[in-house]
Amino acid sequence: MKKIGLLSDTHGYWDDKYLHYFEPCDEIWHAGDIGTTELAERLAAFRPLRAVCGNIDGGDLRLMYPEVLRFRCEEVDVLMKHIGGYPGRYDPSIRRQIYDRPPQLFISGHSHILKIKYDHTLHLLHINPGAAGIQGWHKERTLIRLTIEGNKFTDCEVITLGTHQ
After folding, report:
1. SS3 of 150, please?
2. What is the pTM of this model?
3. For residue 14, which of 46, 115, 129, 132 sits 20 to 30 Å off, Cα-Cα?
4. Residues β-bridged to residue 149
5. End-to-end CA distance of the chain, in Å?
């Protein structure tokens, strides 16, 4: 069993609430637009960090994290990419990979729109954790926590960090 803390689109903004809410987590996954190496290093010092680079991430973060990450967590095949779209409208940059070999869990960020949706055609769960930072047009800053046990997802929680102007 693994408890996962999931966030995206921090854009370099640090909030101590990340550590508070990710305290019970075994790993942290960041779906891109990290913003600074310092932010990534602070998360990685707290819990093991899996991350992908996003479109705003500079060369240093692109050297640290890939654009696409595929891995197993427990018995779940996970695919993560910052710009990924969502069920029925996957981004062309990842669409073929998703359709040729669908993961069980697909995570993307970029839109700043929190979305958890099951793709009934491909039998995969898609999660976009929204945006945890203060850059962008979103009103609520969000994180997600979930548990992966074997091949099952449980205890999915949406956490609202507050608003920004």
Report:
1. coil
2. 0.96
3. 115
4. 152
5. 38
